[in-house]
Specification:
- The protein is an alpha+beta fold.
- It has a domain of 93 residues: Roll (Nuclear Transport Factor 2, Chain: A).
- It is 38% helix and 23% strand.
- The chain is built from 5 helices and 4 strands.
- The chain has a 4-stranded antiparallel β-sheet, covered by helices on one side.
- A hairpin with a 2-residue loop joins β1 and β2.
- 14% of the residues are buried.
Length: 166
Amino acid sequence: MPTPADAVAQSVHVEDSGAMRLSANRMLALVVGVVVILGIVVASLASSWTVSKRDPASPEGVVQAYLSAIVAHDAVAARAQLETTTPCTTENFQQVYFDNASRVDLVDVSTTGDRSTVHVRIEHGNGDPFGGTWTEEQFFELIRTAGSWRITGMPYPVYNCGVVGK
């Protein structure tokens, strides 16, 4: 007659027929397949998200072109969005730093005659790997001259245009 220890030993002994190994391989393949499909879906959605382009002849379109030039470090294109009497030069824009990961949202546009104010909110990353951010508000003053809108003064992010002894 078998002892209780023999009965326990027989109940825990399982013959490895390969069925469990096959089942685990199928499960792994299924998980990998789902991850790949999700990756494809996310990639296709991300590529379809585009920046809404503003009318380049509008005040908000001029500000968008200006900030796009700042992000691209294109001093000539940034300077081209400013009125001709501004003390800012292309050299002033070459010293500007703007984080490419920042996000700019149009808050408001107020236009009266040949003057316009474009209010934007800029969200910057703070370097936190978990996505911390800080936000600032900026107002761009524009004037319409010769039928086109131009930014006046020393706009964000250049504040030292024309200053001697930088």
